[in-house]
Amino acid sequence: MNRIITVVFMLFALASCQKEEISIGTNVSDTFYLDNNGASMRLLVEGNTSSKTFLIFVHGGPGTSSFLYNTDYISQNIENKYAVVYWDQRNAGASQGNSNGDQLNLPQMTEDLKKAIQLIKYRYGEDSGIFILGHSFGGLLTASFMTAGDNQSLVKGWIFADGSHNYPLNDTLTRQKLLTVGQQQIDLKRNVSSWKTIVEYCNNHTGNFTFEESVQLESYATDAETYFHKVKKVNLATLIDVNPIKYDWPITSILLNLKYSSGSSFNRDLAKTEFSSVLGRVTTPTLLLCGKYDFICPQGLDEDVFNRINTKDKKIAISLISGHDIMWQDESFFCNEVNAFIGQHK
Amino acid sequence: MSHLKFYLTFSIIAFSTFCFSQGADTAGVVRKSSDLMLSYNSSVIYPGARLGIEFPVKTIYLTKINRSGKERDFVKDRFITTNLSWYHHPAFHDNLYFTAGWTMRRTKAKGFFTEFSPEVGLSRTFLGGTTYQVDNSGNVTRKKLAGYYYALASVGGGIGYDYSKTKQKPFLIFSKFNLLMMFPYNSTVYLRPAVEIGLIYRPIDFLSLKVKSKNINR
Description:
Chain A has 13 helices and 8 strands. Chain A has 346 residues and is an alpha/beta fold. An 8-stranded mixed beta sheet of chain A has the order 1-2-4-3-5-6-7-8, with helices on both faces.
């Protein structure tokens, strides 16, 4: 009986493709997992690993998957030059585990990111150049990473794309932008009833925001960019529509992880989190990307980072047609800026 | 007092109706072979397989007479099932799971059947890629057979055809939709739909069991 069990386990071990495959080439697709403190996090490396330059996408959410960032456009315009690492954070995307909700917190995720980078270097060589790109919540996670210990010595560049490094400031800036733009739109008689609701809410909620107010502001900010025709409409449904079968998306895992993480109590802790006060520690070249119509993480956040980091290698680039999702709403602008930054600092 | 009379009368009528309707029923115990099941078990595009045994528990031969006087015969079978299943989702995981369940099958005289089966069991996944651990000093090690154990529950419903009814062949074909629930999956639940297409073989004598058998005429 023991023999049968052993044989069955061996067969499935083989079938599950757990043998180590490290591909060096110009059109690579490697999937492997980082197991850390109750979570096995998926890393998909695609593109040109022979360049020895790796761009790690640190996705938003918490709980959004890196699968969404793996678009054909990015494959054709960044992966052809560099390797792109699509990392699913714990409790997100294809990452797996048992009862690990207690470990879903920012310090743990910061450690996960550090270990993900160490793992990339282990697999593809210590001389690999690493760039990290934080989108939305990924901005907070990368800010946490960049300001902790000597973590920034592991990376050659930090890209902050529609990110947030300071949630209380974020709420204040979102409210200000909603008020200012909202009033302008009402004066121009565009979407008047919707903007009136938003402006009224902002006038009635002036600061020291509770978690519920913060959530409401984000909800209005999400709606706000959809009132501008030049901003491409992006939502989870449109993103999931892109080749889920071709890329073997575990759709139910993506959705259920997102539901759990976005509703998790640790979001309340995040609402009070800020890294503005420690950004002076950052000496690494930094690229700040933002959309003109991003109400969720407004441009003021990028300006705050720009003014506080301690490097001269820094740039703010603003897309004139993008909202909160610059990599999907202004793909060519995004790829050109990212490629130029990596090319300069690799 | 009038209430007591009413209840007494109602009880007698109800009881006698029940007794008369069962008047032609017979019950007994028969020996029946267990069935062997093999199926392709997939999530539409991802491959998998399933192997199981159906242990018969109860068989009810039911004859219904409809309003026009026409007789319709059904067989209701009840099985306890054990299954070993597997599916492969590239770059995500392989899942090997063992389940025990209760299958309710209703077969028409012409051989077509429907079935419903809740199951519970244990799942062991194997991650779809090399898995590493990194210690606090940055040392990297590989983790062998990385994956997780999950409690698993599933519900499934399907249709099929029993060739023994009309062609005297000892097998059945079926197609079934199952919804798997695995937990605790990242402190929540993982849902996975799976479609089965398979064959059930009914040997003459394989793990034969004494089964309650009943004929009911209604």
